[in-house]
User: Fold Glycerol-3-phosphate dehydrogenase [NAD(P)+] from Pararhizobium polonicum.
Amino acid sequence: MAAESVQKDRIVVVGSGAFGTALAAVAASSGKASVTLLARRESIVEDFKQTGRNDSALPGIDLPGALIVSDDPAVLEGAGIVLFAMPSQAQREAGRSLYGFIGKGADVVICAKGMERASGRLLTDVVEEELHLQNVAVLSGPGFAADIAKGLPTAMVVAASSIERAAVLAEALSGATFRLYPSADRIGVQLGGALKNVLAIACGIVEGAGLGDSARAALISRGLAEMSRFVAARGGEADTVRGLSGLGDLVLTATSHQSRNLRYGIALGQSGSASGHSGELVEGAFAASVAADVARQLGVDMPVTAAVAAIIDGKMDVKTALERLMSRPITQE
Ligand SMILES: NC(=O)C1=CN([C@@H]2O[C@H](COP(=O)(O)OP(=O)(O)OC[C@H]3O[C@@H](n4cnc5c(N)ncnc54)[C@H](OP(=O)(O)O)[C@@H]3O)[C@@H](O)[C@H]2O)C=CC1
Ligand SMILES: O=C(CO)COP(=O)(O)O
Assistant:
C-alpha cells in the first residue's frame, strides 16, 4: 500500500546507472535533503560501501559521503521526490514494480530521454498510468553524467504541470554546480530529449562517413526545424525547442564524443549500414523508428529522423539515404 504522507526533504533516485548516480551525487552534495540511490543489484551497494564510488557506472568518481545507497525499494516509502533515472524502455516496468512503494504525495520526475517504443507515448503518460499518479515531471537538457558528478558546471531543465511545481523541484534538485531551470512544457522538454538523440546519430553518421562539418551544421539546424514541427504537433511549445532541452542538448550530443548516440552514428557512418554495436545504451536507436512512424501519422515532415530510422532498421544504406535527403525539392527555409 502506498504511503500517503511524504517528506519533501527526502529524495530517492531510482536507477544506479551513470545519470542516476550523477543526479544523486549532486543532490547529496547540496545538503538540502537526505538522498538515497536505489540500485537493483546488491553489488552496487557493496561497491559503494567499500570504495565510496559506483565504478560500474562512473568509474573513478568519488561520491559524497552523505549519499545513501540501497537495494531495498522500501526506501521509497515517505520519499517526497523520486527521480526515475532508468532508460526510457524500462520506465513502464519500473513504474509497475514500484507502484506500491511510492506515496501519492510524491513528486515523480522522469530523467530519461526517449518515448515508449511500442506505442510512441510520452514517458510522463506511461509512468502516470503505472503509478496511478498525475503531474509526473521531467528533467532533461545538456549534461553528461560524468561532468555533473565531477562538479563541472551544468544547466538543465525540469518541467512540471505548473511552473510553480517546476520551480519547487528546480530549487530542491539544484546545487552549487548544477543549475535547473523550471518549465511548464513537459511535452516540449521530453520530446526535445528524445529527438536530439536521433539527430545526434545523424551527425555521427555524417562524421563517420567523412562528410564534413558543414554537413553537421546543416543537420543541426534542419534537425532543429523538424524537432520544432514534431513538438508543436504533439501539443508542446515550439519555443522550448530553442532552449536547453532542445538546441542546447542537440549541440552537446551532436558535437561531443562523450555522447553514446554520436559514437553509435559514427560507427554506422564508417560501416555504411546498420551493424552490431557495443551494447551501451543508445536511446536514439529506440526513438528513431517510433518518432518517424508517429510523424507520418501526424503528417509532420521529418526527413532526417526518417533517414536515420531507415538506416538503423536496415532498410537503406547511408549513401542512398544521403542521396534522398539531397534530392528533396528545394523549399523556403
Ligand atoms: N549518461 C548520461 O550522460 C545521461 C543520461 N541521460 C538519460 O538517462 C537515462 C539513463 O541513462 P544512463 O544512466 O546513462 O544509463 P546506464 O546504462 O548508465 O544505466 C542504466 C541504469 O538503469 C538501471 N535499470 C534498468 N532497468 C531498470 C529498472 N526496471 N529498474 C531500476 N533500474 C533499472 C540499470 O540497472 P542495472 O545496472 O542493474 O542493469 C542501470 O543501472 C537515459 O534515458 C539517458 O538518455 C540523460 C542525461 C545524461
Ligand atoms: O543526453 C546526454 C547528454 O545531455 C547523454 O547523451 P548520450 O546518451 O548520447 O551519451
